[in-house]
Amino acid sequence: MSEEKVLVEVSARHIHLSDADVEALFGPGYKLTVKKELSQPGQFASNEKVTIKGERGEMKLSVLGPTRPETQVELSLTDARTVGVKAMIRESGDIEGTQGVTIIGPAGSIEITKGVIAAKRHVHMTPADAEKFGVTNGQIVSVKIDTEGRSLTFGDTVVRVSEKYALAMHIDTDEANAAAISGSAMGEIIK
């Protein structure tokens, strides 16, 4: 068991858009604008927001950039139930066979036929971090988090290794609430 700690960040509901969908929702030639840089290099929260519409209701989402090849909606399971859409637990980018949703922007709306997920909890690492922790890309680990009155160990956490990453674990708001985390915490990887 490693004594090294990893930053645990809460990833609230958001959407990643393709270039074509940015233009459909915000207008021809539109480009996302940076509101704030995120912990993962090159990733940012944009100033732009969209609304998704499910069978039971609507919800406003922040748009994260940069754009991606395919549009992906990331919700907690509670968010998904609230708007009336099924969110399968998947790794980011694994959207085949998932449900779609209506997305409404200031310049138009679109229907996506797939792309709604509840992101599988994961730890981003560089190859050097993976070596230090003794783990490999795709390995499933547990992460123990000690909080006041709600300490717990998250199992089924996938390790994602890339030179493009910065060391951080990402969990959604349901998971954060279960551990009484607001903002961020520190966790210990257990293999």
The SSE order reads EEHEEEEHEEEEHEEEHE
**What portion of residues is helical?**
10-25%
First-residue to last-residue Cα separation:
7 Å
- Large-scale geometry: globular
Q: Tell me about the largest β-sheet.
A: 6 strands, mixed, barrel
Outline the structure in words.
- With 191 residues, the chain is mostly beta strands.
- The protein has two domains: 5-9 and 121-190, Barwin-like endoglucanases, CATH 2.40.40.20; 12-119, no CATH class.
- The chain has four helices and 14 strands.
- The strands form two sheets. It has a six-stranded mixed barrel. A six-stranded mixed beta barrel has the order 2-5-4-8-9-6.
- A hairpin with a 2-residue loop joins strand 8 (99-105) and strand 9 (108-119).
- The radius of gyration is 17 Å and the shape is globular.
- The mean pLDDT is 96.
Brief characterization of the structure:
The chain has 191 residues and is mostly beta strands. The protein has helices spanning 19-26, 77-83, 127-133, 173-178; strands at 5-10, 14-16, 34-37, 44-53, 58-65, 72-74, 88-90, 99-105, 108-119, 122-125, 140-145, 152-161, 168-171, 184-190. A hairpin with a 4-residue loop joins strand 4 (44-53) and strand 5.
SSE blueprint:
Blueprint (H helix, E strand, L loop, with lengths): L4 E6 L3 E3 L2 H8 L7 E4 L6 E10 L4 E8 L6 E3 L2 H7 L4 E3 L8 E7 L2 E12 L2 E4 L1 H7 L6 E6 L6 E10 L6 E4 L1 H6 L5 E7 L1
Parallel strand pairs: 1-13, 2-5, 6-9, 7-9, 10-12
Antiparallel strand pairs: 1-14, 2-6, 3-4, 4-5, 4-8, 8-9, 10-13, 11-12, 11-14
